[in-house]
C-alpha cells in the first residue's frame, strides 16, 4: 500500500511540474528586469515614430503636433531646423531642454499648458529666429530667458495671463527696445486689475514695481478707474500658425465683421464659415504680405470699393458660398497679381450691374475664375455671365445709330428720314425692331440762307 501511495504521489508531482515551469521562468525574467526593460524603450519608439520628419526648401522639419507629449525625446534627430510641438501637454520648460537641437531656427510651443519657463530653457539655441509661446498659461518670465537667443527676431507671447508686476519688468524692457519690433506684439496684462488689457509693449515700465507697494500710512488712495475694455483683436480670437507658412485661422468663430488689428506678417488668412455680411474699405490695408484670403461660406452680400486696398500681392481669393449679386465698380482694381478667384454658389444677378465683373475678368485673362453663372432673372438663370453680356450688347443696332445725319444729299436724306417716320412701312421689315428713340420722327431740316 505504501509503495502504491508513493507511486501515485510521484505521478502527481510530475504532472504539476510543467505548469510551474513557465511561471517560474517568467518570474525569473521579471526579477532580472528584462520584461520591464523592454516595455519602456518600446513606448519611447512609438512616441518618436508618430512625429513626422520631412524636408522643405532644403530644411528639415519635425512635426510633433497633437501627440499628447509632456517633454521632448532624446532620440529625436538633432539636425532639425524647425520643431513643431503645438497642442501638446508640456507644462514646464526646464533648463537645457532643447540644448541638443543646435541648428534649430524655429520652435513652435503654442497651445500647450506651459506655466513656467526656467532661465536656461533655451540654452544652446543660438540659431533660433522664431519662438511661438502664445496660448499658454505663463504669468511671468525674466529677460534671462531670451539671453541665449541672440538671433531671435520673431516672438509670440499673447493669450497668456501675464501678471504685470515687478518680476516682469526686465522682460518688458527687453520687448520695448526699438530694435525688437516683432517681439511680444499683442501680449496683454491679465493682472493687476488697473492694467488689465494693456499691451506689454506700451506699458509704463517705471510704474510696474510701484504696483507692489501699498499706500503710505495716513494717505488715502484714490480709486482707479476701471480698465477700458476694447474689442477683442484678431490674435485673441483666432489661431496663428507659422509653419509651413504663416496662417491666421479665424474660421468657425461666429464673426460678424473682420477682426481689428490683423497681423501684418500673415501670408494666408482663413475667415470662412462665419457671419460676415459686409466688407468695408481698408479692412486688410495692413496685411500687405497676404497671398491667400478665404472668405467662403459667410453671408457676404456687399463689398465696398477699396475693401481689398493694400492686397497688392494677393494671389487667391475665395468668395464662394455667399450672397453676392454683383461687384461695385473698381472693387477688384487693387488686386494686381490675383491668379485665382472662386465665385461659386452666389446668386449673381444678370443685369447692367454685372458688366463690371465680366469686363474686369475679360481684361485679366491670367485670373482663373469659377462659378460666374446667372441666378436671376429667371430668363437667364443658368447662363454664363459672359454669354449674357454678349446678348446684351448684341441688341444695340450700331449700324442704325448713325443714320439721319445731314450729308448734303437732299433726296437721299429725305428718303431716309421718311423711312424713320412712324407708321411708314419698311421693305426690310426692321422698323419694328429699332429702339424707341430711333422710331421718332426726324427733326426739321435746317434752312440755308445765302447772304450777299
From TrEMBL:
Key word Disulfide bond present: no
Coiled-coil residues: none
UniProt feature, compositional bias: Basic and acidic residues: 19-31
Region (Disordered): 19-40, 398-445
Signal sequence segment: 1-18
Protein's UniProt keywords contain Signal: yes
GO cellular component: plasma membrane
Keywords of the record: Leucine-rich repeat, Repeat, Signal
Stored Pfam families: LRR_8
Composition skew (Polar residues), residue ranges: 404-414
InterPro entries: Cys-rich_flank_reg_C, Leu-rich_rpt, Leu-rich_rpt_typical-subtyp, LRR_dom_sf, LRR_TM_domain-containing
Name of the molecule in the record: LRRCT domain-containing protein
Domain LRRCT residues, every copy: 160-210, 346-397
Organism of origin: Oreochromis aureus
